[in-house]
Write a structure and sequence with these properties.
two-stranded antiparallel ribbon, 503 residues, 20 helices, single chain, mainly alpha
Length: 503
């Protein structure tokens, strides 16, 4: 474990020199009268939990490009089957995480479960790649989609300038960071509002599609399974695209410690959310095929826009706005959840201690939230983000598969562990096998990109020994680290979370 630097603590009277543990001076078993404990509060209700899951799953993908599934299946019927099965598999993964989240009541998601089962090295590698590459790149990609679609109604007859997209994207990203730094309650409330906007956007597509079916526009569903045969490699890739579209069901587990009554709220929120998303995704794809032929869908760069232009007339201008709001909701939910992963990793000593501190008045993990801002802005104005995501997408499924496999391990290693919610063993077994199969498939189908991603991931191993295990760092380095921590504490007005056992 890394040495904890001396930190400054904050009281109503100002800053006081702290101990090496960074805890506020304590003279008894209770906090000072009239002083509120500095902790992350339990503010995630069932409705907010559902909005976090739905709001992060439904981004731009279902509106922009479902063609990846169709392209690799070759027929309408098989593509709809893949969407349904991917929803079921994602539900299996979510139910497995529900058991993990109610058994291990700590925030942090994948990181916490891997730490609990496989130890600190693998957990550090997971958070290392997440912090440096995956999360900044993923946030930048969804933010760029927000910037493009929020500007589209203003550039109907011409191409949107790339610089304008990046500038409005940077503004939107900054708004999300400020929101999550300021208030957990307001962030959750806005997430609920944006989730309703997402569902409204899906209904705008589904309802006209149902009307088309009633009118008899079923020509694209005749001989639904005929067409180009899916190749041996194509079908697994179709599942990969589908699983990627459903990704986000795990984000509520990142904030377990802030969930009210997690033993009931987490499983219920997961079941409600996955049911809504799966039905919504399948019906949205059915709606597309009532108006667009498979050939039209494959040629479209933004399926929802093409669909709305053909069917909704002038009202189609509203669709890009709804897509932009959907992307904004994914940005907000992702930042809210992943900042807790960095917060927990810092609390475990795997990231700088400043990231585990909380604002004294707002009770938000301010440093863990804002650390994403400069990293994402750098990604935003740098090279090919999509290549980075391709390099490291296998890492996401590898670690998720390992986390779910850890559930099986805990069943045998710790049979007496308290499990308020328990799933049949075949559910985590099937899901972890699917994840690991996709990882192996990526090694076979795209060895170059996967190899680069593997190398980037493995850089976490020497980093672990250099930053975590090696405790004989030079004195000047330790002093500089302590000074930086104190300075950031004073600027950001943050302190370590107070241990309830010491208050």
């Amino acid at each position: 474990m890394v040495r904890k630097p001396a930190v400054a603590t904050i009281s109503k009277g100002g800053y006081l020199p702290g101990s090496a543990s960074g805890r506020l001076p304590s003279t008894g078993a209770r906090a000072a009268p009239g002083r509120e404990r500095v902790v992350l509060k339990k503010k995630i209700t069932l409705l907010r939990g559902v909005s976090i899951i739905i709001g992060t799953i439904i981004g731009a993908g279902i509106f922009i490009s479902p063609r990846g599934v169709l392209q690799n299946t070759g027929s309408v019927g098989l593509s709809l089957t893949v969407w349904t099965v991917c929803g079921l598999l994602s539900l299996f993964g979510a139910l497995s995480y529900a058991e993990l989240g109610t058994s291990i009541k700590k925030s942090g998601g994948h990181y916490t479960y891997i730490l609990e089962v496989f130890g600190p090295l693998l957990a550090f590698v997971r958070v290392w790649v997440e912090l440096l590459i995956i999360r900044p790149a993923a946030t930048a990609v969804i933010s760029l989609a927000f910037g493009r679609y929020i500007l589209e109604p203003f550039f109907i007859h011409c191409e949107i300038p790339e610089l304008a997209i990046k500038l409005i994207t940077a503004v939107g990203l900054t708004v999300v960071m400020v929101l999550n730094s300021t208030s957990v309650s307001w962030s959750a409330r806005i997430q609920i509002l944006l989730t309703f906007c997402k569902l409204m956007a899906i209904l705008i597509i589904i309802v006209p599609g149902v009307v088309q079916l009633i009118k008899g526009h079923t020509q694209h569903f005749k001989d639904a399974f005929s067409g180009r045969d899916a190749s041996i490699m194509g079908l697994p890739l179709a599942f990969y695209y589908g699983m990627y579209a459903y990704a986000g069901w795990f984000y509520l587990n990142f904030v377990t410690e802030e969930v009210e009554n997690p033993e009931k709220t987490i499983p219920l929120a997961i079941c409600i959310s996955m049911g809504i998303v799966t039905v919504g995704y399948v019906l949205t794809n059915v709606a597309y095929f009532t108006t667009l032929s498979p050939e039209d869908l494959l040629l479209s760069k933004a399926v929802a826009v093409t669909f709305s232009e053909r069917l909704l007339g002038n009202f189609s201008l509203a669709v890009p706005i709804f897509v932009a709001l959907s992307c904004f909701g994914s940005m907000n939910g992702g930042v809210f959840a992943v900042s807790r992963l960095f917060y927990v990793a810092s609390r475990e000593g795997h990231l700088p201690e400043i990231l585990s501190m909380i604002h004294i008045r707002k009770h938000t993990p301010l440093p863990a939230v804002i650390i994403l801002h400069p990293l994402t802005i750098i990604m935003l104005f740098s090279g090919d983000l999509y290549s980075l995501l391709n390099f490291l997408s296998f890492a996401r499924w590898l670690f998720i598969g390992l986390a779910v496999a850890g559930l099986i391990y805990l069943r045998y290693k710790r049979p007496d562990m308290h499990r308020p919610f328990k799933v049949p063993l075949f559910i985590p077994a099937l899901f972890s096998f699917t994840c690991l199969f996709m990882v192996v498939l990526s090694l076979y189908s795209d060895p170059f990109s996967t190899g680069i991603g593997c190398v980037i991931t493995l850089t976490g191993v020497p980093a672990y020994y250099l930053f975590i295990i090696w405790d004989k760092k030079p004195r000047w380095f330790r002093r500089a680290s302590d000074r930086i921590t104190r300075t950031l504490q004073i600027i950001l007005e943050v302190v370590p979370e107070e241990d309830s056992q010491k208050l």
